[in-house]
Design brief:
This protein has about 280 residues and is mainly β. It folds into three domains: about 1-30; about 35-200, Jelly Rolls, CATH 2.60.120; about 210-275, Immunoglobulin-like (Sandwich). Helices cover about 10% and strands about 50% of the residues. It is built from one helix and 24 strands.
Length: about 280
């Protein structure tokens, strides 16, 4: 009789513990449902990446799992719609993007995190009505989170990241420090460092050319400056800029003595240049 009483007391105690934990678990544990990013538009060479497999991307394709991604080639573009029209992601050329988180919380919030290892993207997200909803962009330098905004992001070959806000507000975090980048401002993040204080938005794709000359008759030297947050592509290769946007590169001299360059701002504004070597 005493043994049965002890078993009954233990069972009653566990039921009491579960009755307390159940509401807490319901609040904290994510509920996984069908989530996706749908490819709405493409131009040029766009590749769908799924694990070790790749294939040409087609309109209507859905990225549905962590690790799914897109790669765009030279002069390529892609537009992704986050399910239920949470937002849109416009992916520029020479960009590598993939999903790192895609889930729904118990409160109905939708958490979406994308990683951009290189390149440029522009995001447009509507104001979120569910508190748990998040749309985050992670780069080698940090993470930027939005809650209803239009902003652009650029990632240099060395991981240095530019964040520009056109509308709303973006919170950029790196090395345990966060910076609020409001509309009309921009910030940059160098890997291993916190975000810089916001400065007024530039969004200028100008190329300030300072050096354009032949070296030993077979090589061309090109030097100059662009805005430090911009991406600079010369002859289909994205150049590494110093923190001030300065660059210097040497290339084989083409037979026609013409060099193609392209400057892209974090918001996606572009300017193409044809440099004629004297």
């Amino acid at each position: 009789m005493q043994r049965q009483t002890r078993i009954l007391l233990i069972a009653t105690g566990w039921l009491a513990v579960l009755s307390v934990l159940q509401p807490l678990l319901a609040q904290t544990l994510p509920v996984r449902v069908n989530r996706w990013l749908e490819l709405r538009q493409t131009s040029g060479s766009v590749t769908f990446v799924q694990g070790s497999r790749t294939q040409p991307a087609r309109t209507g394709l859905r990225l549905q799992a962590v690790g799914d991604g897109l790669r765009t080639g030279a002069s390529a573009r892609a537009t992704l719609a986050v399910d239920t029209q949470i937002g849109f992601v416009q992916v520029s050329e020479n960009t590598d993007l993939h999903i790192t988180e895609l889930r729904t919380t118990s409160n109905g919030g939708r958490v979406t995190e994308l990683r951009i290892n290189r390149g440029q993207a522009r995001l447009q997200a509507r104001p979120f009505t569910v508190p748990d909803t998040e749309l985050n962009i992670r780069t080698p330098a940090g993470v930027s989170g939005v809650r209803g905004t239009i902003f652009g992001i650029s990632v240099q070959p060395d991981g240095r990241t530019g964040v520009v806000t056109q509308e709303g507000i973006v919170v950029t975090t790196a090395q345990g420090q966060s910076v609020a980048v409001r509309a009309g401002f921009q910030s940059s993040i160098t890997p291993g460092e916190p975000p810089t204080p916001p400065t007024p938005l530039v969004d200028d794709p100008s190329l300030n050319l300072r050096i354009l000359r032949t070296v030993e008759g077979t090589t061309v030297e090109i030097g100059g400056r662009v805005d430090p947050l911009n991406l600079l592509v010369i002859e289909e290769t994205t150049q590494i800029l110093d923190p001030d946007g300065e660059f210097n590169v040497r290339l084989p001299l083409p037979a026609d003595r013409r060099i193609q360059a392209l400057v892209t701002t974090p918001l996606g504004q572009q300017q193409a240049y044809e440099l004629v070597v004297p």
